[in-house]
Amino acid sequence: MNGRVPVAIMISGRGSNMAALVEASRAPDFPAEIVLVLSNRPDAKGLETASAAGIATEVIDYRGKGSRKAFEEGASSAIERSGAEIICLAGFMRLLSPGFVERWHDRLINIHPSLLPAFPGLNTHERALEAGVKITGCTVHFVRAEMDNGPIIVQAAVPVSHKDTAETLAKRVLAVEHRVYPLALRLVATGRARLVGDRVFIDEDVTDLPALAVPPVSLREVPDAAAG
Ligand SMILES: Nc1nc2c(c(=O)[nH]1)N[C@@H](CN(C=O)c1ccc(C(=O)N[C@@H](CCC(=O)O)C(=O)O)cc1)CN2
Ligand SMILES: NCC(=O)N[C@@H]1O[C@H](COP(=O)([O-])[O-])[C@@H](O)[C@H]1O
Known about the structure:
It is built from six helices and nine strands, in the order βαβαβαβαβαββαββ. It has helices spanning about 15-25, 45-50, 65-80, 100-105, 125-130, 165-190, and strands spanning about 5-10, 30-40, 55-60, 85-90, 110, 135-140, 150-160, 195, 200. This is Phosphoribosylglycinamide formyltransferase.
């Protein structure tokens, strides 16, 4: 595939991270090509975005008893058919079984809207505000059977203000997600992010990787939530 690594993206909803990866893959020097967008929900808005971008889409909609196994078998064969060698979870909201994670071991990455290991799971921004943290952010990691506990590839931080709501914080973190996920995929697709045990080594001086130096969003930019 013109030397670029074929990639499948799994979504469950809006798909803005998927769109950011598709956009990044348009760059002539981007080392990966998005060949499939797969959703476990037929109403996922991201499916329209992917189709409009000319990318093959697939919906595997199993609900109820036995749905997880049936979904994963359908997903694995769709991904095999697409020839994808890396899978990006982008707002994919289902726990994947150890069997699926093992099937795609070290080729399955996910973006999570917190600085893992802090705030794994759901409702991360509400919990960050509750905890009163002053910095939060996002994490791209290799997926392991245990939820949100895989080797970390890239992280980026944003400030938190007492004026923030979960919505204003989610918006600030999402803006950084859209820059960090393409970087993480670039590092994995080129083999510059390599696994040593359960740690990720990045084979170069990370600070000169432009996107990694994500400029901290200054608190001055924090909208006055009260002012609405
Ligand atoms: N085995 C793994 N599966 C998944 C991981 C992972 O790290 N290991 N990451 C998630 C993504 N994710 C957080 O980044 C996440 C997704 C879903 C849930 C969750 O509790 N889901 C509920 C159902 C929620 C729903 O359907 O809306 C569930 O699966 O019962 C937590 C974290 C992707 N999968
Ligand atoms: N635990 C997984 C999780 O919470 N993922 C988060 O869901 C959102 C999906 O947005 P998107 O559909 O617009 O990419 C993103 O913020 C992503 O980090």
